[in-house]
Amino acid sequence: MWRRVTSLSPVMSTSKPTSLDQAASGFKIWRSSFSTETPTLVKDGTTSFKERNPFITFVLGGPGSGKGTQCQKIVETFGFKHLSAGELLRREIESNSEHWSQMLNTIKEGRIVPSEVTVRLIQQEMESSDSNKFLIDGFPRTEENRIAFEQLIGLEPNVVLFFDCPEEEMVKRVLNRNQGRVDDNIDTVKKRLKVFEILNLPVIDYYSKRGKLCKINAVGTEDEIFEKVRPIFSACGMMSHYFAF
To answer: Would you give the DSSP letter of residue 137?
Structure first.
């Protein structure tokens, strides 16, 4: 399943949009609540978000790859602001149940909401944050996501982490952590992994060619895997947030 990505470079450099027009009609309501113009947020009356030169990291990996756990360790060590695309969508649904509850099944089924919606939610969180270092978990899931982020926000990620894990290991992890849930069995987990592979590989290929991809072997203990992650941010000049000022 993952053979096609084994040739991707693990080294970080500092250096035809697709369409989802088949999305459910309910998404039209969702999209209409967001402006199609890129806002210029001025912080303290002087500096726009883009001019703050934020450090943005995308975090990719299939279900059970351990990226969520590693995100927590990155936040604790380097003081990043952690943004989960899936969590932002779920929170939005819960806060607007009259219009958004119909979208919950879409997320559960692993289908993709319109890119503009996801990007605007991420944008709002970044612009309202005092942090200038962002860890965006589970995004972009598709080439459409990637293109929408670059066009609407006008920025590219500094680093893209890809937690590469064998399918068998991911299936085992998901089944273990969700023991007792009827909606997670071997077949459904493998289906989610297949969807991830199909949608995410073009994104991974793109950032590999851009020299931004850091592929992490996600097999081992949590601490062992983090020791593969730590040097990436250290090389970018990131200090432990305990000593940052």
So the answer is: E
H helices, E strands: number in the chain: 10, 7
pLDDT in tens, 185-241: 788 888 888 988 999 999 999 999 999 999 999 999 999 999 999 999 988 877 654
Query: How far is it, in rounded angstroms, from Cα 93 to Cα 101?
Result: 6
Give strand pairing partners of 164.
Answer: 217
Which of these, 39, 56, 57, lies nearest to 48 by C-alpha position?
39
Q: What is the pTM of this model?
A: 0.72
239 φ/ψ angles, rounded to the nearest 5 degrees:
-100, 155
Give dist(CA 37, CA 65) in Å, integer: 35
Give the pairing type, strands 47-48 and 133-137.
Answer: unpaired
Residue-wise pLDDT for 16-35, tens only, equals 333 323 333 333 333 333 33
The CA–CA distances, whole Å, from 219 to 66, 167, 197, 235 equal 9, 11, 18, 22
